[in-house]
Amino acid sequence: MSALRRFRALLALPFALVLAAASTPAIAADHNDPNAANSIFSDIPMSAADLYDMFGWPADDVSRGERVILALTFAPVPIAGTFDPDLLYRVRVFTAPRASAQVAEDGGLQGLLDYFKAVQDRYLHARPGEVRVVPAGEKKVAITFRGFPGGDLAQTIDMNTSLELKAPDGQVLQAYIGGRDDAFFNDLPGFFRSINYAPQFYHVPHNKPELRELPIPKTLIELEGNTLFNFDPANPRHGSGVKTDLPPGPYTWSGNRYLKDANGNFRFVYSGRDAQAGFNVNAIILELPLSYLTRSPTTDRIVNAWGESWVRKASGKVPAIADDRVLPGPVWERYPYQSAAVVLVAGLLLVVATRAPRRSLIPKLAHALGFVLVLTAVGFTVLVASGRGFAGSRSQTLGDEQLAGYKLVDTDGQAFADAALNERKDERQVGADNLFLGPSFIKRLAHLGWGFGPSIRALGLQSAFNDDNAPVSVHKVVDSPVEAFPRVKKMLFQKLNMPDNSWNKRNLPIPLRRTFEVFVPNVNSIDMDTNGTWPFGRRPEDQVATRFLALFLDMTAQVNGKPYDVELLNQPALWQGAAIEPKTPPNPAANDKPFLATFPYLAEPW
């Protein structure tokens, strides 16, 4: 290991300790967030800063060598095919070897420490490359590739056209910037019904956070007496394009069982319909050679990517986010130079105060500590100034003149990290820098588990969440990760079974991913030795919303002699035999328009 990597590994220790103390990490399609740009609220307009999805998978056609496809989609403002002139978008990419840590099945602190050690370069990686896109006049954008081994490239290109660009090293890059059909096929009203999210059904302003997720249990099946969110035959479009005024409270639930019809069937909160059918998005779609992204394509088999939206400060748009806000995280990331200065001064004071020629052991140790602090401060400052700081985000924007005129609004990496686990909070839009969110993720998973777990068992399935066999979903706010961890431990450490071996296209000994590996950092982690289906990337045809629900299943259980897998809840036969209406998977099985077999892959806009 080089001296630089050893020094960065030493500086990584606080991150590992923070997450280890919480005993784990996180979990993210990203429609309608963050809250500051969330048009689901009655007083927030649709914003071009609202990122939707981050797709990424290895190209199936390898005739031109190994290539990776990246597609970032976002709100079509002002219209699909035209960009808001006050927006700047970034697709950020770094490559790494596949992590080789073997974490024990029962998990625990030591398992997590082993994992952090094995993948520390995913958190403390060299400066990531980026593709930056800025509107440049009528139907044109300025696209910049920077920080990649294949060389930097800047060019103004036409929108809504598939183009080939030549990198300085001669490799061909493909780009499409413009409008496409929304590739996210999902029953969003069903998801919001499952978490009793009032703004989807009622006129709720942004400044009423207490009226967002109402204190009613999360659930996959309707609760008897939950009139605020149960399907209303008299108003069948409620929550699906129709909103009403929120009736007077109380906004709680006092029942004790699930709703059943006259035939004894439960009612699904999901309809299985595609709420995004007929809608367009704007998109940045890229197909890049792996050898352009890394100098070591034979060993760097993981391509990590995430997207960011930045709004011009002078525009006054997204006013709920302050122009001068400091991104959240550890103090040394939020104020790197100030932190280095404090450590430097402390070190110098120790050196000066203990410089007497005759010293006892304690002053000698303090003198040595002073020198260590000085060297640490200097080394940390060099790392930050060179853009090789932590997680590749904050330190690399400090000296960026263009970004100085913008503010970060939204990030998108792993499907459902933001929409389900981050609760769309503005301060949690940090992309790969989400290590400090470990404690909140554990608590959020437990909160969801108390609702989803009992409803999964009510349907005759087994849940990985420990809810003490609660007979009905429970609304429980878990205040401590220490309290939450025993409940979610199995969920976090269990292997996520795949339905068959088609994902492992080369039949290599690639370990199945586990929940704690999927969501920290918040990036789309694409394994180039697989076909890129979730959680080994994200292909457009993946039904990630239903696969996310599968995280709450017990992957050691069996149905029809076969272990549960991430596709189990997508199987129509499962629901045909269940005592539930409607007898359909939670979300649609396919997009409203077929995806294309060739670049740019996402379907043409309506």
UniProtKB/TrEMBL annotation:
Alphabetical keyword list: Membrane, Signal, Transmembrane, Transmembrane helix
Signal peptide extent: 1-28
Membrane spanning residue stretches: 335-353, 365-385
InterPro entries, per the entry: DUF4331
Name of a matching Pfam family: DUF4331
Keyword Transmembrane: yes
Protein name: DUF4331 domain-containing protein
